Automatic annotation (TrEMBL):
Substrate binds at residues 9-14, 71, 153-156, 176, 181-182. This is dITP/XTP pyrophosphatase. GO terms for biological process: nucleotide metabolic process; purine nucleoside triphosphate catabolic process. The active site is at residue 70. Homodimer. It comes from Iodobacter fluviatilis. Keywords: Hydrolase, Magnesium, Metal-binding, Nucleotide metabolism, Nucleotide-binding.
Length: 198
């Protein structure tokens, strides 16, 4: 029987990307929402701690191995902000539109628009797993002054990928998987998983 992992995320954009990344593997990923798991607190100041928190929470409730992604946008001119607070940059309730607006306002008149996406992934085999599998990835880009494209999610319409001359919302889902912080992190995690087993 195919192994199941709960994906400890309520973000539909992430769920789509993970489905694509896992398509070739012998593992079925089930979004936590389908198993009745609600969002948990993300109280920490580091991505890795929040990812561990989310993974343990989903695994504790479902009894399944759990994979979590804690990610964000780090802007050099903003001292690395919004960083771990990217989802809540413009306050609660979370809104990509208001976050993007706030990002543009924060960078008004700013010449240095360099930024990167960061993703921390944590996989626990059970809620008290003493050896969580951990990996991360980075994707470099620049923040535009106006949105472009309909794909992706979050900050993608403002995130220019210099190597494509397109935003992360303008490239295809396959292209994004190949170069994204999430894609890079997941490929590293899968290599570790193949060493240790699930
Ligand atoms: O590829 C990406 N393309 C665009 N934006 C992205 C990306 N990756 C992370 N981001 C942004 C979205 C959100 O503002 C924050 C993640 O926050 P983060 O708490 O990890 O996710 P979330 O609250 O949306 O879902 P959940 O915690 O249920 O997985 O960084
Ligand atoms: Mg979150």
């Amino acid at each position: 029987m195919m192994k199941r992992i709960v994906l400890a995320s309520n973000n539909a954009g992430k769920v789509k990307e993970f489905n694509r990344l896992f398509a070739a593997l012998d593992i079925q990923i089930v979004p936590q929402g389908e198993l009745g798991v609600a969002e948990c607190e993300e109280p920490h100041h580091t991505f890795i701690e929040n990812a561990l928190e989310k993974a343990r929470h989903a695994s504790r409730i479902t009894g399944l191995p759990a994979l979590a992604d804690d990610s964000g946008l780090c802007v050099h001119a903003l001292g690395g902000a919004p960083g771990v607070y990217s989802a809540r940059f413009a306050g609660e309730p979370k809104s990509d539109a208001r976050n993007n607006q706030k990002l543009l306002e924060s960078l008004a008149g700013q010449a240095d628009r360099s930024a990167y996406y960061y993703a921390a992934l944590v996989l626990v085999r059970h809620a008290d797993d003493p050896q969580p599998l951990i990996s991360d990835g980075i994707c470099q880009g620049e923040i535009l002054e106006t949105s472009r494209g309909e794909g992706g999610f979050g900050y993608d319409p403002l995130f220019l990928l210099p190597q494509f001359g397109k935003t992360a919302a303008e490239i295809s889902a396959d292209e994004k998987s190949q170069i994204s912080h999430r894609g890079k992190a997941l490929r590293k995690l899968i290599a570790k998983l193949q060493e240790t087993g699930l």
